[in-house]
Amino acid sequence: MNDAIKNRKFTGASKYVLDEELAKIVNISMALEMPLLLKGEPGTGKTMLAHAIAEALRMKLIVLNVKSSMKLIDALYQYDTLTRLNDSRFGDSKRDVSNIEEYIRMGKIGQAFTSDERVVLLIDEIDKADTDFQDDMLDVLDQMEFDIIEIDKTIRAKHRPVIIITSNAKKDLSDPFLGRCNFHHIAFPEPDMMRRIVGVHFPEIDKELLDSAVRTFYRLREIKGIEKKPATRELINWIRALRSDPDFRVKDLVKGEVPYLGVLFKKSPDYTVAQNAVARFRV
Predict the structure, then answer these.
(1) Which of the following CATH numbers is that of domain 3-185: 3.40.50.150, 3.20.20.370, 3.40.50.300, 3.30.460.20?
(2) Rounded to the nearest 10 degrees, what angle do helices 232-244 and 191-201 cross at?
(3) Could you read off the pLDDT of 2-55 as tens digits, one per residue?
(4) pTM of the model
(5) Smallest Cα–Cα separation from 210: which of 219, 229, 197, 223?
(6) Which of 37, 78, 88, 255 is deepest in the core (most CB within 10 A)?
C-alpha cells in the first residue's frame, strides 16, 4: 500500500465535529490496521463517523447493514443460482452457463476486499448478529481472505480497508470479538459540544435561537418516561423546522412553547408523555 495513503490522518469533516480522544483512536486504528468498535446510544454519530472518514480521506464507503437473520456468507458473496438456471433454460444470455464464476456476486465485505483502492468498510449494528457471525467475521477480517467454495477460489484483499464497526449495546459482544478490536464509547454530547455541532450545520444561526433550542432540547431529553430520547439528528431537523416556519418566534420557545414535537419524538407513547410535560413548561 502506498505510504502516503496509509499515513493519512483524520481530523474531522465538513459536517462532523470531532473531539481529540476520538480523533486519536480513529487514527491509531488506521495505523495499526485494526477494526474500530464504536458503542453509544443511537444518534451519537457512530454511523456518521464512517461517512466523515470517507469524505475527509476521499475514500469510497461500503456499508454492511447487519440484520439478525444474516449469515456471514451473505456479507462475503452470493452464488446466483436462479439466474444461472434461467440462463440454462432460455439460452438467450451472453453469460457462459458452464462458468459458475459469472454467477458469483460479491457481498459488502467481498466488495471491500476486491476494490482497486482502499475503502472505508462500515459494519453497522453488529450487535444484531449472533455470536458465530461476529466471531467468524472477525476471522475473515483478520486473515483478509475468504474462500468461494463453488469455484474453489480464495479471495484475498487487495487493500486492507479502514474498518468501523458500530454497536448500540443492545446485546453483549463476545470476548474474542472485543479482543480483536480497538474500542471507543461515544457519549451523548454535552450542551457546549452540541452547540458546536449545530453551528456546523447552521453556520449563520441566530445565537438566541441556538441557545434556546439547545436548552429546550436537553430539557426534553430529561422528561421521565420517554423510551426513545431525541438524538442529535432530531435536534438538527427540529431546528430546521423552526427556521422554516415564518411564524415561529424565539421568545415563544423561551416561554415554554415547543412546536413540532413530532420531529423530536417518533413513538406515540413518547409523544404523549412529551406533550403533557411541555404543558408544564409554559409560564
Answers:
(1) 3.40.50.300
(2) 50
(3) 444 456 789 878 888 888 899 999 999 999 999 999 998 887 889 999 999 999
(4) 0.85
(5) 197
(6) 37
